[in-house]
Design a protein that fits this description.
578 residues, alpha/beta, Serine Threonine Protein Phosphatase 5, Tetratricopeptide repeat, Rossmann fold, six-stranded parallel sheet, four-stranded parallel sheet, globular, disordered N terminus
Length: 578
């Protein structure tokens, strides 16, 4: 972010003579500070500004420039205080609000940064730079619609600003508007074809459109212009991972890490690449970088107990195993509770409310508490997704691959009555997941495409709550029984799953539920699957009752659904099944 220049200085000899005559003359100290500042003599400049302020407590310019020096000395919190003092002395100083906003954004105090930019803009409404940086702060808060509006306002004030067109393209792809994002990035490149960030953002838009080879070319252009652009190497690695060119993906991640060793994203995505390939020990260690992800990772819990990753003995100790990501992750990793219990620990499991009834059947748990409730005293804690690292899990050593979750007999009896007498094989269906899932557009299937392939002589039951508008009419026109309104918690879904002969699901929490219960389960996977499903196999080390149906390189569901339909006929077409 650009920084405003210091207030122009007077000549140093005049300042020196003035101080000799009157050491407390604020203006003279100020001018000597500027002279030190111009020479990069930061500690001397800071001492002179302090003396100027001591001589004149409402010296706004001295506070302002002291903040610049403090920033150069990496004293950013102190610099914010100096800007506050400058603003108190001169409340209409837009530049002070703007620079303060920049500092707050660097400190990740994003809401305060936006408020500071707002004050600057209120004083100078046509300041495109403030509108642009405000948009960047909103983007960092994941307020993408508001960020887009702010960037577009900046473009309205300065239409030929290539960087803002590029940033607008980045936000558009975050909103899923990939065609518009591509147009915005092309506009940026048209204004400045040497803007490496625009080529990198263009690659993201093309990646969203699944034009992966073109995305790769765009990242290569970015790197050719600016070889040290870590984001381009990292994004290039992601495309190569989607293309399943895993060795090349690792090289790109390694280059990004070499350029920016503290950046979390390349470490974390390298972890995903290792896990996908079955190199789990390397993957689990790097997966711990998830805690450093900005905006997209889990939030680290403040727990007054040390983290346990398998080193310390647990005999006689109490340990908290806690939910951190999605419901499916919790269902998958709660299997480790009996292993922790077997080490002699008292196990407290924290989980989201919809899972509490179901997880009450899990062995090895001494106390089950709801996420967000008060925590009991514990000696250690471990996030659920760190348990494979703690137990050094490899694909051949995955614990409890079948039947570690069970349905409630009372609820199962209610569903027996609700469904009525069984006359045909029952198949539970989940064709889409939550719309807010970052990979939902890749993992979900059109209900119309699914129903067109379903053999008519089976009893189909919907196992999902949410039905999208586009699927509402196909559902009404199908023979699928919808009971989603009655699925209050996962204990209901588990009881209903238990009455199915087969569960067919896209990659959602229901797939993990059915697999954990040991139900025959077919999981429909996109070409670039989640890490837990590995690559190139139709079974899963996590659930031995699961069969995987994978998209091919065309990213089409047609072949997947055709294979599913053929297998349904083979499985249920005997006279006994009719």
């Amino acid at each position: 972010m650009p920084r405003l220049p210091s207030v122009p200085s007077r000549k140093q000899p005049v300042a020196t003579r003035a101080i000799a005559r009157n050491p407390r003359q604020a203006e003279a100290h100020f001018n000597q500070a500027l002279a030190h500042q111009s020479l990069g003599q930061w500690p001397e400049a800071l001492a002179s500004y302090d003396r100027a302020i001591s001589s004149q407590r409402d010296f706004a310019a001295a506070y302002f420039n002291r903040a610049l020096v403090q920033k150069a000395l990496n004293q950013r919190e102190a610099a914010v205080v100096s800007y506050d003092a400058a603003i108190a002395a001169k409340p209409d100083w837009a530049e002070a609000f703007y620079n303060r906003g920049n500092l707050l954004q660097e400190l990740n105090r994003l809401a305060e940064a936006v408020a500071s930019y707002d004050r600057a803009i209120r004083i100078k409404p046509d300041w495109a730079l403030a509108w642009s940086n405000r948009g960047n702060a909103l983007k960092a808060q994941r307020q993408f619609t508001a960020a887009l509006a702010s960037l577009e306002h900046a473009i309205g004030l300065k239409p030929d600003w290539a960087e803002v067109h590029s940033n607008r393209g980045f936000v558009l792809q975050l909103l899923g508007h990939f065609d518009a994002a591509l147009v915005a990035c092309d506009r940026a490149i048209g204004l400045d074809e040497r803007l490496a960030e625009a080529w990198s953002n263009r690659g993201l838009a093309l990646q969203g459109l699944r034009r992966l080879d073109e995305a790769l070319e765009s990242y290569d252009r970015a790197i050719a212009i600016k070889p040290e652009l870590a984001e381009a190497h990292y994004n290039r690695g992601n495309v190569l991972q989607e293309l399943k060119r895993m060795d090349q993906a690792h090289l790109s991640y390694d280059r990004a890490i070499a350029i920016s060793p503290e950046a979390a994203d390349p470490h974390w995505n390298k972890a995903i690449a290792f896990l996908l390939c079955g190199h789990w020990m390397a993957g689990w260690a790097l997966y711990e970088w998830r805690w450093r992800l900005q905006g997209t990772g889990p939030t680290r819990r403040a727990i007054d107990a040390p983290l346990w990753l398998g080193a310390e003995p647990l005999s006689g100790k109490t340990i908290l195993l806690h939910h951190e990501q999605g419901l499916g992750d919790t269902l998958q990793m709660c299997r480790y509770a009996p292993m922790v219990k077997a080490l002699g620990a008292s196990v407290v499991l924290e989980a989201p409310k919809p899972l509490l009834g179901l997880l009450s059947t899990l062995e090895g748990v001494d106390a089950l508490i709801e996420s967000g409730s008060a925590l009991p005293p514990v000696d250690f804690h471990c996030p659920l997704l760190s348990l494979p690292l703690a137990f050094k899990t490899e694909p051949v050593t995955v614990p409890a691959t079948r039947g570690y979750l069970k349905s409630d007999p009372a609820k199962r009896a209610q569903w027996v009555q609700r469904l009525g007498a069984k006359s045909r094989p029952r198949v539970g269906l989940v064709w889409s997941g939550s719309t807010i899932h970052p990979n939902d557009r890749n993992r979900s299937v059109s209900l119309a495409a699914l129903t067109a392939r379903l053999p008519p002589h089976l009893d189909y039951v919907c196992l999902q709550n949410e039905v999208r508008e586009i699927d509402a009419e196909p559902l009404r026109n199908s023979a699928i029984r919808y009971v989603g309104d009655e699925l209050v918690e996962f204990a209901d879904t588990a009881a209903l799953c238990d009455l199915m002969d087969l569960v067919i699901s896209v990659d959602t929490s229901v797939a993990h539920l059915a697999g954990a219960m040991g139900k025959p389960t077919w999981v429909l996977l996109p070409y670039a699957p989640d890490w837990r499903w590995l690559l190139g196999r139709d079974d899963s080390p996590w659930y031995d009752s699961v069969t995987l149906y994978r998209q091919q390189a065309d990213w089409s569901w047609d072949a997947v659904l055709d294979r599913m339909a053929a297998d349904l006929h083979r499985r249920f077409d005997s006279p006994a099944c009719r």
